Amino acid sequence: MPDTVDALLPLSFLEAVRNVDTPVEDFEAELVGELRNKRLGLSDTVYNQIKRFTEAVRRGQRTSFDEAVGLARLLGRRPDAEAVFRAAGRQLAAEAYRTLGGVSRRLMLLLPSLLSRPIALRKVRRLAARYLDGRISRVGANVLLEVPGSVTADAAPRSIGCTYYEASLKELLRLTVNAGGAVDHVRCSSRGEGTCQWRAEWTATSH
Asked: In terms of Cα–Cα distance, which of 150, 122, 33, 20 is closest to 79?
């Protein structure tokens, strides 16, 4: 289990909470003030933590694994925990994808699958290793993501926290190879199965 995680991981938790808790409609100023007192994502604490982790991401710094676990457990107590974890997973994948060079992104989009898939697989492996501390492997028509030290495995009942990594993998595959298939959680550390593992189809919806 790692001692640290990339700062983008806990930042994705906090930004997802902020986005989920932000009112969709325009509210009177006094009502927004009331919401700030009631909604975690609008609190000054979350705002300051977002600033801190954003700066850490900018500097390429890592942060405490235990601190990330603490944030995950805080989210896991919410009634909308699954929605927040999924939003956070997509957030991390999108930000990780933006770190890829423009040339790589264009090649994955424009080249035929025979040429673009090896490029995409290398990029997804690198992003998963850096931002999720996970390992990507190709098994036939599928790709497997294995995370030996999941931050979210015990964050909520019924493996709800594991939807974070599921959503991250699904979004990475959508962005890199336009894959839109299901992602299955085939092993879970919270069920006593060693490491967490997810399987996804390595196929494109169109190319």
From this structure: 20
Q: CATH classification of 4-201, choosing from 2.60.120, 3.30.1380, 1.10.10, 1.10.1740?
A: 3.30.1380
- Write out the chain's pLDDT in tens, 207 residues: 679 999 999 999 999 998 888 876 555 444 444 444 456 656 778 889 999 999 999 999 999 999 999 999 999 999 999 999 999 999 999 999 999 999 989 888 888 888 888 999 999 999 999 999 999 999 988 999 999 999 999 999 989 999 999 999 999 999 998 887 889 999 998 888 889 999 998 865 544
How buried is residue 119: exposed, middle or buried, by Cβ count under 10 Å (0-12/13-18/19+)? middle
Question: Do residues 120 and 200 lie in contact, with contact meaning Cβ atoms separated by under 8 Å?
Answer: no
